Amino acid sequence: MSPPHVPNSAFFAFALCLGLAVTSWVARASAADRADDGDELEHTTKRELTVLPTVGGTSDIGLGGGYVVSWAKVGARVEPYWWRLESTGLFTFRKDESGKLGAYYVDDYLLVDFPNVIKQRLGLKARLSFTREKALKFYGLGNAAQPDPETPRREFDYTRNHPTLRLEGEGHFLRYGRLYWGAAYTYNWFDVEPNSLLARTMRDGSPKERELLGTPQSHGVATFMQGLGWDSRDDVTSPQRGQFHDARLELSPGTETKDFRYRFARLSGSARFYVPLVPDTLSFAVRFVGDALFGEVPFYELAKYQDSYAFGGSKGVRGVPGQRYHGKLKFFSNVELRSQLLRFRAFGNSNTLGLAGFFDFGRLWADYSGSAELDGSEIGLKYGTGGGLRWAAGRSFVLRFDVAWSPDADPVGAYLAAGHTF
Q1: What stretches of 154-241 adopt beta strand conformation (E)?
Q2: How many Å apart are CA 398 and CA 393, to the nearest integer?
Q3: Residues in the chain with pLDDT < 50?
Q4: What global pTM score does this model have?
Q5: Secondary structure class of 218 (helix, strand, coil)
Q6: I need a labelling partner for 247 at 20 to 30 A (CA). Which of 65, 182, 269, 359 fits?
Q7: How high does pLDDT run on average in the chain?
Q8: DSSP annotation string for 285-315
Q9: Using an 8 Å Cβ cutoff, are 143 and 327 in contact?
């Protein structure tokens, strides 16, 4: 489906120009701040460049290729780095039930990160992205969703296209306190086949299902975020000890126009703990996440927490097929053992190879009414377990490859991504 005419494109153009202006201003401010630190700093800083072609994807979106580029300036007197530019592109392909090969997923983004605009006090970042998700799934609402096994797989699919501009700030107070704020704009358009499960549920489902799902019309969403955090990690990129907790509130005020029809809020929180078991060799990490949605919520947000998928995907409950469960209230946890086994130098950077084992679990609820029909009456935990490889290049970049099994998996889930899961 070709993109529709976007009547609010002027707003997006303005937001893009604003993001570029902010990025330019941040670059000048950061350069001035570094210059003030004198010649001594120049002898303790270096640039880390990582350029990787990638071959991979996930079991949800097929196989393909792309690139990962990370360029950062690190220093002995600053954490985690002075600045970092990161860009990742991924283009995947898979065969449909007829055996025809097609493009299923396109994702490309540019991240500009200045965590030390004011040294150890103020950080700013901007992220511009475009994503086309052709293989998004809808299997039904709630924790007890059980699709008919005789249903052709293509009837679970729909397509979502969405460019996004996100601007975020982070302030530091006391020693470990954090204050977060930001704004984002996303424009969405869809391709939903009339005989798909999503279209049928929107059209013929129960009153509760129709109320929660709405309609797949093109629209824009502007969100504004505020949050508080506590971060005592010893390293932002590859932590081995400390804690990181945050609570965030996102608001989408909406309007009476069709372009901003959704008015909703998201309250999310997480608690992360990192414990070294064998110094510089083996560590234990655990994360607990809660996510609650209120108001008139776009249907695709029901499968997500913050900007990632909760059940399925590389940052949620791994092993579960992507978007397997949809609901307004979610809880999940990730438990990992991480090792650092081999250290070497390559391309002027220090590198570390390691292994990780993990166990993820969680549950969700369609809404707050406690519907046994949609959510079941038992504990109903969903879980996945597996392991993977970790490659840390310098102090600013990690590449991971995970394989996970779950009772929901078909037969396993596989994920190639930048950065630790948490």
Answers
A1: 157-173, 177-191, 219-231
A2: 6
A3: 1-34, 36-42
A4: 0.83
A5: coil
A6: 359
A7: 88
A8: EEEEEEEEEEES--GGGGGEETTEESBSSSS
A9: yes
